[in-house]
Automatic annotation (TrEMBL):
Site (Transition state stabilizer): residue numbering on this chain: C164
Secretion signal, residue range per the UniProt entry: none
GO MF terms held by the record: S-methyl-5-thioribose-1-phosphate isomerase activity; translation initiation factor activity
Catalytic activity, reaction form: 5-(methylsulfanyl)-alpha-D-ribose 1-phosphate = 5-(methylsulfanyl)-D-ribulose 1-phosphate
Main enzyme class: isomerase
Alphabetized Gene3D superfamilies for the sequence: translation initiation factor eif-2b, domain 1 (1.20.120.420), Translation initiation factor eif-2b, domain 2 (3.40.50.10470)
Pathway recorded for this protein: Amino-acid biosynthesis; L-methionine biosynthesis via salvage pathway; L-methionine from S-methyl-5-thio-alpha-D-ribose 1-phosphate: step 1/6
Organism: Stigmatella aurantiaca (strain DW4/3-1)
Functional summary from the UniProt entry: Catalyzes the interconversion of methylthioribose-1-phosphate (MTR-1-P) into methylthioribulose-1-phosphate (MTRu-1-P).
This protein's name: Methylthioribose-1-phosphate isomerase
Keywords: Amino-acid biosynthesis, Initiation factor, Isomerase, Methionine biosynthesis, Protein biosynthesis
Length: 371
């Protein structure tokens, strides 16, 4: 995708061939800042602090974190430590574990002397694979937008509601939920996105709105609780969200508030789709509500909000009653029964065990093994 008309990815190897560049997403939308990472600890901090965020991008960053760790020490012990440190940074996003397991599977059989070059090669391949997966998700999702427009007699605009940020900033490129939007827009379809602000970190208002604006996609930022009202009045043609972890039966964990959007969509007959690359599927879990660990984040994300003053200065202000305790749950789980369909790189399927296995039949022989 483009930033200021320049093709840009969210993560890359710098010109020195070893350090890793990222966009500091905590600075958006007020400043576009690139950060150079040179150590395992710097990558772990970038993931924990959400300088990089979004399940696919977290996985890509973790892969490069392994590379940076091996620059200092390529022993078995160092590889195991890097895996442990990075795995502990974010508990909900399954792509993190998947990417780390891919790196360990590739590197463990090699001698320490041969690990570093192969680590960089595999990390780069994971990034390229992510781009291809997301581009394919977009291709499979465009017909859903075309069908929504056809239902309207190809009049007016196609109104898509999304929650949080599942665009290219959450991946290496293209995005998951927004990949169909970008492709549809580029093909000339009149797509418009309702962008939930997504409290408490405001990833919708700050990140989704920013990247849609960079690409020229029409959009409108709304408060989190407006979605149901818009659905009641026929102003939402379909919802598309992302997911940080999807169970084998189609339950999806996404940013807190997604479940309420799905309930409103069902009550108003609005299709509710979830877009996901296959590494986001946790084939070892069935019941998402029971089994997916839900991250509880620092309470200051809820008690404080950042913004830009008229002077241009970016400040953080306290918005809650002094002394009030807070609970900051990062995600919720939407049961499969509320999901119209899952958009994957292999096509669209029902949110069910059989639906997923119809697209990934090779998983019939390995379900429950974690492989």
């Amino acid at each position: 995708m483009k930033v200021h008309e320049q093709p840009t990815r969210t993560i890359w190897v710098e010109a020195d061939g070893t350090s890793v560049g990222i966009i500091d997403q905590t600075r958006l939308p007020h400043a576009f800042v690139k950060v150079r990472l040179t150590t395992l600890e710097a990558v772990a901090h970038a993931i924990r602090s959400m300088q990089v965020r979004g399940a696919p991008l977290i996985g890509a960053a973790a892969a490069y974190g392994i590379c940076l760790a091996l620059r200092e020490n390529a022993s078995d012990e160092a590889l195991a430590r890097a895996h442990e440190v990075l795995l502990a940074t974010r508990p909900t996003a399954i792509n993190l574990r998947w990417a780390l397991e891919e790196m360990r599977r590739t590197l463990q059989p090699l001698s320490p002397a041969g690990r570093l070059a192969e680590a960089y090669r595999r990390a780069a391949a994971l990034c390229d694979e992510d781009v291809a997966l997301n581009r394919s998700i977009g291709s499979h999702g465009v017909p859903l937008l075309e069908a929504a427009w056809a239902r309207k007699g190809k009049q007016g605009r196609i109104n898509v509601l999304t929650h949080c940020n599942a665009g290219w900033l959450a991946t290496v490129d293209w995005g998951t939920a927004l990949a169909p939007v970008y492709l549809a827009h580029d093909a000339g379809l009149p797509v418009h996105v309702w962008v939930d602000e997504t409290r408490p970190r405001n990833q919708g208002a700050s990140l989704t709105a920013w990247e849609l604006g960079q690409h020229g996609v029409p959009h409108t930022v709304i408060a989190d609780n407006v979605g149901g009202h818009l659905m009641q009045h026929g102003e939402v043609d379909l919802c598309i969200v992302g997911t940080d972890r999807t169970t084998a039966r189609g339950d999806v964990a996404n940013k807190i508030g997604t479940y309420l959007k799905a309930l409103a969509a069902q009550d108003n007959g609005v299709p509710f789709y979830v877009a996901l690359p296959s590494p986001t599927i946790d084939w070892t879990l069935e019941d998402g509500v029971r089994d997916i660990p839900i991250e509880q984040r620092d309470g200051t994300e809820l008690t404080h909000i950042s913004g830009r003053l008229a002077s241009g200065e970016v400040v953080s202000v306290h918005v809650t009653a002094p002394g009030s305790p807070v609970a900051n749950y990062g995600f919720d789980v939407t049961p499969a029964r509320l999901v119209t369909g899952l958009i994957t790189e292999r096509g669209v399927c029902a949110a069910s065990s059989e639906g997923l296995l119809s697209l990934f039949p090779e998983r019939r022989t390995v379900r429950g093994t974690g492989t």
